[in-house]
Amino acid sequence: MIKNKLFIRLLLAAAFIIPLSISLTSLILGRIPFWYDPARDMILALGNHQKLSLIGQASGIPGIFYGPYWIWAISIVLLISKDPRMVSFVLLTIPYFVLFPFMLYKFRKTLGDLIPVILWLFFILSFNAYSVQIWNPNPAPLLCLAIIYLLVTNEYLSNSRRNIIKLFAAGIFGGLLLNIHISFGLSVIIGSILYLLIFKRLKPLIIFSSGFIVLFIPFFLFEFRHGFNQINTLFKTITSASSVVRESSVDKLQIVELFTKRFSMLVNLPVFFSNILGGLIVFALAISRFKKKIEFSLVERNILVVISTISIALISIYLSTKNPVWEYHFIGVEILFMLFLGIAARKFVVLKYFMLFGVILLTMLSIVKLSREFYLDPYKISSLATKEHIAKTIYDDIGNDKFSVYIFSPATYTPDFDYLLMWEGEKRIKKNMIIDRNSKFAYLIIPWTTDDLRADFIDNRTPNAKYKTIKSWHIADETLIIKRGRYEIK
User: Fold this and answer.
1) Of 488, 46, 441, which Cα lies nearest the Cα of 433?
2) pTM score, whole prediction
3) Which of 110, 292, 347, 452 is 20 to 30 A distant from 37 in Cα terms?
4) 490 vs 470: CA distance, rounded Å
5) H or E segment at 444?
6) Other C-beta atoms lying within 10 Å of the C-beta of residue 402
7) Whole-angstrom Cα distance, residue 190 to residue 472?
8) Which of helix, strand or coil describes residue 336?
9) What is the pLDDT of residues 115-164, one digit of tens each?
């Protein structure tokens, strides 16, 4: 017994320290993506300091916006620091390393002491990006776990204040999820409602819905002020006989494959083998239950029902939609597989120890990967650190002169460099040093492309008849920085 407790404590310590070390290393070294979406959100959050917005960033459907909560959260952190690392740490790293394991370990009465630790390691090592990458869908798994926990552990026959608060909180989290990750959030809300209706829990459904509606007060205020444009657009989107988005995505079969791929990502197996493993587990559970070799507790039954209703809702929505379905729409599905795997491991000891072996191997591979991070060229990939280096290179070179910057990009806007150049200027206490398109000097930031496209871009932004190349820098990720200056007028 003493040895068993010591093993659990050591495993708990390792389960926390190793993944946290990986996340903190990525943050400190700046080896996290910083692209269009996170930079756009941070710029919107800065604007939120001047005027509070009731909507967030644009969604994939024209005329429909995410809720304001993600932007509000970022804007609060930006009052402390404008470093993207700080935003990641406060909004993602802390929640995923404090709230997520706490909630998962609350299932120990159902799953035992060891299984929640194994599931935590599988999740955090397989989806480490959730804890460091600024992106509005990334909190979705955390919110999904919270909603499921509050629903399945509620004592529905009791009218105690505790149970009412848990249901209302589940609705709050559901509304928040829908505000930051519309497609998956809608699936979780519908699945939760179906779960409550299956057991004829009408009063709990009203309490859950009340919490959900509260989160949409900013939405309704915005709609009231702007002629209910989003509601009209949403109605037209639902009733339209064709897609309102011009882009095309995956077909129906690929939608199912993307759904099962989240299980593959969770257990770190190729999709073919993970599908076989999942099928065998489902078959073994069904046969064992039919032969009455296993029994499910009330909470286990509740978990199986709610993850089933959410899965059915999600697949039904994605298969019936006329608009594109992308892989990121499935962020959060791994929580459903994680809880299912936990129940199966509780019933089959051999599976529990097979998972233990697998997660120990995954942990060792993660440690090896972490050790290699310190020997890699920090600017080899197009990360936050690389783009910061590019901004610093330009400011180090220009001194106190005014300058303009042009970025070669397929996107019309380039918020990543816009934000980092602005932030770098503020750090140097050069707030009056605006980027002036009519200035004598121009810098061109050109990620790798063909020689012809590079030459056309250079001549288009800084015509060869007016500009000459003064200096250039070659970054390890194959980005080229070119400094161009106007010819002197004699």
Assistant:
1) 441
2) 0.92
3) 452
4) 19
5) strand 441-446
6) 15
7) 55
8) helix
9) 999 999 999 999 999 999 999 999 999 999 999 999 999 887 677 888 88
